[in-house]
Amino acid sequence: MNIIEIAPGLSLIPLDQDIPGFGSFIGSWLYKGEKTFLVDVGPAATVPLLIRALESVGVKSLDAILLTHIHIDHAGGIGDLVSRFPDTPVVCHNSGIPHLSDPSRLWKGSVKTLGDVARSYGPIRAVPGALLRDAAQFHDHGIKCFMTPGHAPHHVSYLIGSYLFAGEAGGCYSELPDGTFCLRPATPPRFFLETSILSIDTLMAVPHDLLCYGHFGATRKTPQLLKIHKRQLVEWADIIRRQMQFDQGQNLVEHCMKLLLRKDPLLAGWNEMDPQAQERERFFFRNSIRGFIGYLKEKEK
């Protein structure tokens, strides 16, 4: 069982999907101290893997499951998981609660956006309403919750001790075999630059020693990487805005992607990714660019 020990009491459980390029991309964070918590659970397809991993390290119960947001790759397996841990409170943004108690719209939206990827992730089962907790009102076990909208309007980050779980509020972080990394914005439509920057400011103001990403891994180069990511968002907006001034054709997204790969030093490790991981990244890269394009078009109105 591949469980990565990251820091004292903290492990990352990789939830590799049966999709080319989707290894070391989705994971669940396991915190074991006086209390035991999970942060994000991945999609339904890998809940059996997650349960086996928890059993392998002796986890028989959970004190809380913390969801950074309810996108299918982070929360799609929550209904299946609580059937195994039936008394565990599930913490998320208040606006996510109705979608977890009745995930029909969430599932339809996931299929519309992700297509076959969503189908591979598996359908979303409902969570009993009695288990769902509003993150803004959750103060148990010393956990601190921070509203960090941007990647999603219902995004929440969590502080447990000195570990800050930022989901996708700080972008997507990929460590590469040569020791370098890629840091890519996670800015799908509808994206609002100012909102995301305020959320990064929120994270930077939180004292912490370790920054834990939803995709994928952790860094102690914090808050430096948050500051760098904040600047990256502003630079992406500037690069895409300039491209839009003379390019409104059907290939705008592809042109922006080529330009960003050339100009953004935080993407310099792109060529170190294997071809299947690059293909995965292209999908989400395009969606992040579309978020910026939509934002910039709205700003022009």
TrEMBL record:
Residues 25-215 form the Metallo-beta-lactamase domain. It comes from the Bacteria. GO terms for biological process: antibiotic catabolic process. Signal peptide: none annotated. Belongs to the metallo-beta-lactamase superfamily. Class-B beta-lactamase family. This is Beta-lactamase domain-containing protein.
